[in-house]
Structure formats: structure tokens, C-alpha cells
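Dear colleague,

Following up on yesterday's call, I've attached the two folding results inline so they're easy to grep. Please treat them as preliminary; we haven't cross-checked anything against experimental data yet. The first protein's sequence and C-alpha cells come first.
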Amino acid sequence: MKAVRYTAAGGVVVDRDRVLVLRRPSRNEVRLPKGHLEKGETAAQAALREVTEESGYADPQIVADLGLQRVEFDYAGAHVVRDERYFCMSLPHPEDGDLRRVDRKRKEWQFVPDWLPWEEALSELTYEPEKEWVRRARLAAPGAAH
């Protein structure tokens, strides 16, 4: 079996007592925003870019580094080893209270952003490694109920 190894970075975006998740109806998945690092990009830069591209929310800010986790799985005839680096993030709140959105690239319209309470996010996320990121973020997020 072919081996594939890469690094990905993403964010657990928190707004008060809610977590941003991405619904992917075509695969019946609920995910966190993340993606591959591009050449010359740090994990933090990639995570910020991916959150904006996949969610459409502008100006995410890193609150805490949640660490590194290795995920292994078989997919399409390959054994994939992915080193994931996640960050707890927040979004700026303008005076009117609405979170600012940006135009997203057409390819990213596969995701439908949704805000869920902590427990509901943990229940609905499709993959266990992403649930672990939410658990870590809950401990790191300012003002989050632990």
C-alpha cells in the first residue's frame, strides 16, 4: 500500500459558548476547518487561511496553540499519515454584533458553516480526532465553560 504523509493545520473557532463547525452535505460530514500547508507557510498562517477560505469568516485571531496530533488512516488505496496542528481562534466582533464574512473561493462552497454549543459540536463532529481538538480548545478558550 502506498504511503502518503503531509502536515495540515486548522482552527477551532470559538464565539462565546459556541464552536464553528463546517457541514459538508455531499459527504454527510461535520468537520472543523483545516487544510494542507502551502509552500513557505507556517502552521499558524495555514490555519488562519483555511478558516477564512472554508468558513467565509474574516480576520480570525489565534487565541492559543492547541498542539500537534498525528492521525493515520487508509484512504483510496493509500496509508495516510497526517500531522495536524490546531489553534483555538476567535473572531472580532464589530459594534453591530454581526461577524464579518468575506467572499469565498468557489471550491470552498462545499462547506456550510454552523455555530453549535460545545456539547453539540462534540456530539456532531464526524471524526474523533477533531473532537479532541474541541476538547483542547474548550480548556484554552477565554471565558469558556469547562
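Below is the second protein, in the same order (sequence, then structure):
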Amino acid sequence: MYHCIVNPAAGRKNGQKLIPIIKSYMESCGKELIIKETKKAMDAANFAKEGLQSQGIISVGGDGTLQEVVSGMLDGQDKCDTPLCAISCGSGNDWQRSLNSSQTLEARIQSIIAGKTRAIDAIRANNMGLGLASINIANIGLDVEIVKRAQPLKKIFGKNSYVVSALISIAKHKNHSLTVFIDDKEAINGDFTLVAICNGQYYGGNMRITPSAIIDDGKITLCLVKGLSRSKILMLFPLMLLEKHTKLKDIEYIECKKVTIISNNRQSLSLDGNIYEIDKPLNFEILPNAIQIFE
């Protein structure tokens, strides 16, 4: 039996449209499927916990749905043996790009039937009792402001909602004063426009912020963008889209296993596009080989 978790509203209700297609494919292969539809925040996480004894969990939705599913699968643990298939149908689908997979829906379902899996990493986020995890990218700063503003714009602008939100957010942005601890040793103090803690490469609807990140190398790729003026910020995102930003002197990349961020102010944290308000130090830790995915 397989456990299918669907966000019916994902991608302008693409999630709902996929339910009968997935069900038909699985039944034609003689596989039993339990379908759970999310209605509110953390439903996907709770449904994932219910499916831990199944033959596999199928996440149908956007990156945010997948983040909840992974959080539920790990539920404070370092690893989960129940395999996962992510069928992306959201507005951004950045994880699909980070995974570097162009499989069709039918091919994805066939991979479930075949049962072949590979292990990938995840990032435990704010491990102070919150039980959250990220499979792609965690971030704070300007990019979170963009994500927050983009959410209500998705119904109007779809995939372009991030671009519209970026223009608004840049005009209103203030840099963040932070202390960043790396592997419990090195401390970096300063003003930052954004900080991204990456397992994958893409976020924000096709921006490849960390081209060097590898999803199964047992490392976080930390991206620090030092405090920029608004004029420089306006140049930053077009450079990201063109993948010309990595050599900018205001951007630093560090490979590590743990990151702690301390701020004097309450922070909005984005985990794969889901927003969490945090008023304590932010802690991130790589979990090597944490999730088995169908391939």
C-alpha cells in the first residue's frame, strides 16, 4: 500500500487534477493507494507520519507541500527508510530542478513500481523542538520577504509572482544584522541582504543560487550575501537568473555541516517556500542520506 499526499490547490489546482490520473496508473499496476488531501498548514506533515509504515509516500504538490512531507517523515529523526516520490505541480517546482529530473508523470509512477531508490540529504532546521526539515533550501532575508509577498500574488501572476514580489520587496528592503556560526567554530558578523542554507541549487522559481550544491554530498552549501544597496540588489537577481552572480565579491559560499544564525530581531524563515516566524537562534544541520527517493 502506498500513501499519496495531495495538495489539491497546488499550481492553480493542478494537484486536484492529478489525483484520478495517479490513482488510475497505480491501480492499473495492481497497487493500492491511500489518498490524503491537505486542507491547512501541517496537514501534509501529519499525513506523512501516518504513512511511515507504507511501501512508499507520494507527495503531490509544490515545494512547500514536499517540505511538510519531509518534516513529517523525519519527525525529529536523522533518517527515514520509507521511500518518497515527489510529483511536482506547484508554481515554482524548484526541487524538481535541484533534483535534475525531467521525468514525465508516467515515468515517475513507473519508478515507484520498479522500487529502485537512492539516498539524498536533508537539512534539519531549528532543531529546538520544532521538528522541521528542508529538502531543498532554507533562507532568511530579502528572498523570504519576496516569498511572503509572492504568495497572495500567485493567483494573479502565477510563475511571474516572484518577479513582481521582488520589485516590491527590493523597494522596501532593509539589511539584517546577523552573527553566523559555522560548524560551531567560525563566527561571521555583519549586515546581510540574504542568507541561504542549501541542499539543492534552485529557489524562487528558477533562480540557481548555489550551482555547486549537491543533494547527496553530506554538506550544506551556505550562501552569504553581504549587505547590498538597493541599486546592487536590483542587479543581483537578474545576475542570478543568468547564473552570473557566483563571482560577485559580495557573495560568499561556504561548505559546512552546521549553521547557527543569531539576530537581535525576530526572523521570518523560509523552508522550501513555507514561512515560519522564529524568535530564537536559527539552527541548521545536514542529515546525510536522510531520505530514500524513488528514481
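For the second protein, one point worth flagging: The chain has a mean pLDDT of 91.

Best wishes,
A.L.
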